[in-house]
Amino acid sequence: MDRFYILATWMLRLAYLNILWLFFTLVGLVFFGLFPATSAMFTITRKWIFLGERNLKLFKTFWTAYKHDFLKQNGYGLIFLLVGYFIYYDITFIQLNPGKFSFLIPVIILIFTGSMITLLFFFPVFVHFKLSFFQYIKQALLIGISSILELVGMIASIFLLYGMVVLLPGTIPLFTGSVLAVAITFLSQRAFKRIAIKKGIAVDETSVE
To answer: Distance between CA atoms of 61 and 70, rounded to whole angstroms?
Structure first.
């Protein structure tokens, strides 16, 4: 019964967090709400996993993080959008000119791969470290490249979550973003700890807290 209670409690927490994520994404008209809401969600998962704060006031914590980083996170959202548009434009350009610019394909693949790695580690880095604006992007990429096992784990988590959604579509509004955020937070914290150990510092010495 104790295990069932713990499981039920965590399922409720994850469902509530996912609903908050979706709601505040919609509040920001999706584009302006997605990055601030995702950052707020990772703020909470970090407190759960890294700081061991289990009994958070979810709405208050989420709302505080959401409004605090709203403008900054939309700046990052614009950067990732521009990179995505650049990749899309180049792919379309190559398709319209077959055989002429095929030498650009490896470059596009490299940019796409780098941007995806950066995006996977970006939110954990943002809520954990205190850095300058562009250092968040740089460190997310560097940590991602140097954390192959954690990166593979994140990709596997995405595929597993996709499989769950295909089998149980009803889980979309309850467990998609929050479950993935927990998995990515757990794996990224492992990477942070390993890097800190290599540098001979405490993992929380450079953290936001």
So the answer is: 14
Distances (CA, A) of 151 to 10, 80, 117, 138, 186: 25, 19, 8, 16, 12
The secondary structure of the chain as a DSSP string is -HHHHHHHHHHHHHHHHHHHHHHHHHHTTTHHHHHHHHHHHHHHHHHHHTS---S--HHHHHHHHHHHTHHHHHHHHHHHHHHHHHHHHHHHHHHHSTTTSGGGHHHHHHHHHHHHHHHHHHHHHHHHB---HHHHHHHHHHHHHT-HHHHHHHHHHHHHHHHHHHH-GGGHHHHHHHHHHHHHHHHHHHHHHHHHHHHTS-TTTTB--
What does the block give as tokens for 63? 């709302």
The model carries a pTM of 0.93
User: Given this model, what pLDDT does residue 198 score?
Assistant: 82
In whole angstroms, what separates CA 7 from the centre of its chain? 24
Q: What is the pLDDT of residues 130-163, one digit of tens each?
A: 999 999 999 999 999 999 999 999 999 999 999 9
pLDDT tens-digit series, residues 162-199: 999 999 888 888 999 999 999 999 999 999 999 888 87
pLDDT above 90: percentage of residues in the chain? 80
